[in-house]
Amino acid sequence: MISGKLLNELLWDLLRAQQLTPHTPVTTILFDGYQVALNKDKKLPHSTYAERLLPESVSYAGHDGSTTYLAGTIASDALPPELVWHSLRGLIFDDEVTFLDELNTLRQRLTWRDHHRFCGRCGGQTRLLANEVAVSCVECSTNFYANPAPSIIVRVVKGDQILLAHNARFPPNRYSLLAGFCELGEPAEQSVHREVKEEVGIAIKNIRYVTSQSWPMHNALMLGFEAEYDSGDICPDGKEILKAQWFDRDHLPDLPGAGTIAYRLIEQWKQALDSGN
User: Fold this and answer.
1) Where are the domains of the chain?
2) Residue 67 Cα distances to 5, 22, 25, 48, 143, angstroms
3) Each residue's pLDDT tens digit in the chain (277 positions)?
4) Same CATH fold, 149-275 and 9-115?
5) Model confidence, pTM
6) DSSP string spanning the chain?
7) Is 9-115 a CATH 3.30.9 domain?
8) How many angstroms separate the Cα of 175 from the Cα of each of 21, 69, 187, 247, 263?
9) Which CATH class is domain 149-275?
């Protein structure tokens, strides 16, 4: 239970916005950037940690009928001794973690709340709305909703080969599929054409949607596509993409790990080749 002494003004606002009381059991999931604090057995903690939180960072994260969940940020050196920092990227590849989707959601809501503490229209302070993942400006009443940032990732194939690229941010020798954010007013399929043309200079055809993944980094909703090579020579942009080339099934480079949408799209391509489809 949260005691009245530990509830700072923001926590009161969070509970009041959701029509809860100070006696509601509360669990706070702690973050520091894209690190999350878990118990030593990789389970979610069951405490408020209210006295350790950075008040401006706390966000309401949900209620399951018995417990209220908050997401909050603390400094790395303020971590309680019973908890251990884990990288969200690392947890993506950890089969022991069964609540990764929930952690990704919490991280995204926390980022969104941090970016919307003040109104983008008049500069006034914002407060959480009850029963919605949204905030409202206390001055002009403008509402802001927690919407993801749509992005695309595409598996481009040419016969029995797949196009893979080395991004400037990747570790040495790591390759993956081409990806990027959708622009305002741009259909996702158009984003696929544009990103491929901008990053490696080729034209593609026969685009089709395959799958999707919510991604905690940049609050992205990644829409996965497949496309076929149409024309042009590979010419990396030299800024974001440093190298790109066609690879066959038996000579693949270092690839993204299991748990990523890139891995899933590449594995589907390999399985299709193995089955003769």
Assistant:
1) 9-115, 149-275
2) 19, 12, 5, 11, 27
3) 333 333 344 555 555 566 666 566 778 888 888 889 999 888 888 887 766 776 666 776 666 767 777 788 887 788 888 999 998 888 877 777 778 887 888 888 878 888 898 999 999 999 878 767 788 999 999 999 989 999 999 999 999 999 999 999 999 999 999 999 999 999 999 999 999 999 999 999 999 999 999 987 788 999 999 999 999 999 999 999 999 999 999 999 999 988 899 999 999 999 999 887 6
4) yes
5) 0.80
6) ---TTT--HHHHHHHHHTT--TTS-EEEEEEETTEEEEETTS-------GGGS-GGG-EEEEE-SS-EEEEEE--GGG--TTEEEEEHHHHHT-TT-S-HHHHHHHHHHHHHHHHTSB-TTT--BEEEPTTSSEEEETTT--EEE---EEEEEEEEEETTEEEEEEETTSPTTB-B-EEEEPPTT--HHHHHHHHHHHHH--EEEEEEEEEEEEETGGGEEEEEEEEEEEE------SSSEEEEEEEETTS--B-PPTTSHHHHHHHHHHHHHHHT-
7) no
8) 50, 37, 26, 10, 11
9) alpha beta
Both tokens assigned to 99 = 């609540």
